Amino acid sequence: MTRERTHVRRLLAVNPNYFGTAPGLGFEAVLDQKGDTTYEALSCVSFSPERDRLEATIQVKRSSGYGGPLCSAGTSEHVRFYVSYDEGATWDDAGAASASVHDIPAGQDCEKAAQLPLSYVVGVNYQPKRKWCATPVLPLVRAILSWEIMPDPGMPDQTPIWGDVREVHVQVRPRRWILPDLVDSLKLSDAAIAKLPPYLLEELPSPIPDPGPKLPLPLSAVAELYAGGEKEHAVPAHRFALPHLAATQVAGTMGVTSYVAPANLALESKIDLSEVLKVLESASGDTTYEQIECVGLDNNADQIVGTFRVKRPSGFSGGPCTAGSKEYVAYWADFGSKDCSYTYLGTVEVATHDYATIPSGGLCYAAPLTVDLGQFRKGCDTPVIGRVRAVLSWGTPPSTTNPNAVPHWGNRIDTHVQLRPGHAYDGVARITLVGGVESSKVDGATGLTLPGGHIAETGYALPDACPFAGQVTLHGPLDPALVGSSYRIRVRNITAGGPVTDLTSAFFVVDQNGVGSWVTPGASGWIGWPTWSSDTTGVLGMFTPGGDDLWEVQLEVGGLGVVDVRRVQMDNTLNSSIVVGDPDNAGDLNLQTMGQCRVPKAPLAGTFVARDEHFHSWSFSVLGGPTGTVPATPVTCAISPATQTPAGGQPFSIDLSALASCGYVVRLGITDRAVVNSTGFGRTAYVDRGICIE
User: Fold this and answer.
1) Separation of alpha carbons 45 and 47, rounded Å
2) pLDDT surpassing 90 at residue 1
3) Which residues contact 187 (CB under 8 A, 6 or more apart)?
4) Under 8 Å CB-to-CB from 190, ≥6 apart: which residues?
5) Are 346 and 331 in contact (CB under 8 A)?
């Protein structure tokens, strides 16, 4: 491994532009290295319309270069996602996720195939901008993979040192129709719109309810849809008739008369079923319309995720205002079976549709399957490498008994994954996650995070000594041996004192089908231990204590008493002003405009206060201007953004030389290092000051 890879953080601390990836910071590059994919690369980027989740598949190519073996801290592969609804003119920052990677010896699986590369998946939940089904939303997604250095937020054009950048188009699930859609469709004049009552044009609060189930087109309508179309939209009968043929192959005893209706339907649709069957029986593995390209394991969400690409605009049984068609992805895995055999894990359904046009690269869909792999986990001294197979089939579900079966429309793909270490199922009840962080990474005395902590849902690497803000969620193991036992969560405010109280508030769970529901504990907080099928993440409870106190959390199991005790330090205070009596949490910004309304295009001096009891960083930005796009405004300050200011203020200057004459807002951001609502990191308070450039 090179010196630069080993000491990347040290080199950047001396020169942020050491590798030439940050030319606008005023430092000369020492080494020209951008987007090096020697060690890792993005193999797929996709979106799950059903789950509203962005996914990225990372291939880790080597056995070393990742910071040490599995029992060490290792390093992180970070991915930040951006979404554009105007083909890259503007971008929405959709958030970041990370995967922990380590040096894992290269080996072979039971079939003597090389285990490298290993496929990791990271993802973020994302609520897209929706329109109704007559206006398809096919945004562009950009993913930036960066080893060890987290891609900065709000910078879609940044280049990683070691890493990759990939763009794909995806499809967003439509919302239901609302009245403003009718106005848009009719293209009413401004005068006509002005006559409408204003409330009729107000959109419903977000999220607008989904449109609900859509009806599939009958075979005759599908045949008519594809008859005599342009070459790009021409679809053969052995494609569009397949789902209708499959619908007749139902389980159970059927007489000859049961087949009369589908046969007559084919005749009415002018389809030669004998010819269709002949083609279907003679060929398989056709990837003309869709193809699965990646599969990997998301260790943060405990999901196997496959990515497939839709290549053509037609051939999917109807547009987005119909039920369209189904793509099925079946997953198989082998985590060390004695006979080198695959075990069927489950099948995911993804809806696909016809569109008038699609981007040249097609549309990329994710098919995530939540899996219970707890039985295969081992300690960090024994890496668990598994084989995973994904089988894509359009129109009909693939086999659930034969992993080698190849569907007519679709294909299969194999990969190797590394299962994160942990406790194997041992029948012991414990709290595994506290506030979204592994319980072993939360200090039992201070209630702050320890070095090496991550947010479990996204894999986001946390700095040391993070408190908790908002909702604190508690998780436990989904060990089948615990099913049937009862438990309760009890809490106590250590800072303020007082009694132990039962936690009886409702909490949210998601089952194996991705369906969420609320669960309410019974009398005195008692409830049955969760099962994986009904609660795939093992949520035991949640509470929102508020304030800035230290709390104790107890897990009590029926017949055993208290079996686990954890602590969480709360911090819900983040001030954007000077508060009398609170020197630890403060924000202020003073610009030396000398009382003038207008300031020249030049460096502007001032002082600022950025303080928090659990401080993370400060930042400056400038908003406004004639175009909304603001040129670079470098800040000069004697302290780094990772250092909080003195209570009396810190001098600084911001260079406004590149700005056009207009009104602007200089914004100071103060970010803490709290784990927010058990899923996010850092809250930011803003202090704004207006200026006018002459």
Assistant:
1) 7
2) no
3) none
4) none
5) yes
For the CA atoms of 598, 601, 606, 611, the dihedral, rounded to the nearest 10 degrees, stands at 110
Kindly report, residue by residue over 569-611, the tens digit of the pLDDT.
Answer: 999 999 999 999 999 999 999 999 987 878 999 999 999 999 9
Contacts of 411 (CB under 8 A, 6+ apart): 285, 287, 291, 292, 391, 392
Residue 487 · residue 540 · CB < 8 Å? yes
- DSSP labels, 508-542: EEE-TTS-EEEE---GGG-EEPP-TTT-TT-EEEE
Residues 6+ apart with CB under 8 A from 578: 586, 587, 588, 609
One-letter amino acid at 609 equals V
Please state whether beta strands 325-334 and 163-169 pair in parallel, antiparallel, or not at all (unpaired): unpaired
To 5 degrees, how large is the angle CA 166–CA 314–CA 290?
Answer: 45
Using only the alpha carbons of the chain, give its radius of gyration. 28
Q: How far is CA 456 from CA 473, 540, 554, in A?
A: 11, 15, 21
Size (the chain), residues: 694
Cβ proximity of 571 and 674 under 8 Å: yes
> What letter represents residue 481's amino acid?
A
Q: CB of 263 within 8 A of CB of 277?
A: no
Identify the CA nearest to 398 among candidates 386, 380, 410, 415.
410
- Distance, in Å, from the CA atom of 562 to the CA atom of 553, rounded to the nearest integer, reads 10
Please state, in angstroms and rounded to a whole number, the distance separating the CA atoms of residues 74 and 76: 7
CA gap 606, 667 in Å, rounded: 13
Q: Produce one character per residue of 76-86: b if its CB has 16 or more CB atoms within 10 Å, e if not.
A: bbbbbbbbbbe
Asked whether the beta carbons of 23 and 96 are under 8 A apart, the reply is: no
**For the chain, what percentages of helix, strand and coil (3-state, to nearest 5) are there?**
15, 35, 50
Helix (H) / strand (E) element for 192: namely helix 190-194
Bridge partners of 395, per DSSP, are none
Distance (Å, whole) CA 357 – CA 409? 21
Three-state secondary structure call for residue 74 = coil
Sheet with strand 472-475: strands edge to edge = 437-438, 433-434, 472-475, 539-543
What residues pair up with 585 in beta bridges, in sequence order?
A: none
Contacts 24+ apart (CB under 8 A), 506-511: 507/473, 507/539, 507/540, 507/541, 507/542, 508/539, 508/542, 509/534, 509/535, 509/536, 509/537, 509/539, 510/370, 510/535, 510/536, 510/537, 511/535, 511/536
Query: What per-residue confidence (pLDDT) applies to 281?
Result: 75
Q: Model-level pTM?
A: 0.88
Backbone angles phi, psi at 386, to 5 degrees: -120, 155
Tokens coding 198: 């204003």
Per-residue pLDDT tens digits for 72-87 = 989 999 999 999 999 9
Say what the pLDDT of residue 261 is: 60
Neighbours of 233 (CB within 10 A): 17
Closest CA to 168 of 357, 353, 367, 307: 307
Residue of 48, 49, 46 whose CA lies nearest to 143: 46
- Burial class from Cβ neighbours inside 10 Å (0-12, 13-18, 19+) for residue 403 reads buried
685 in Cβ contact with 575 (< 8 Å):
yes
pLDDT at residue 74 in the model: 93
Helices 219-226 and 260-268: angle between axes, nearest 10 degrees: 20
Chain segment 279-320, per-residue pLDDT in tens: 777 778 999 999 999 999 999 999 999 999 999 999 999 999
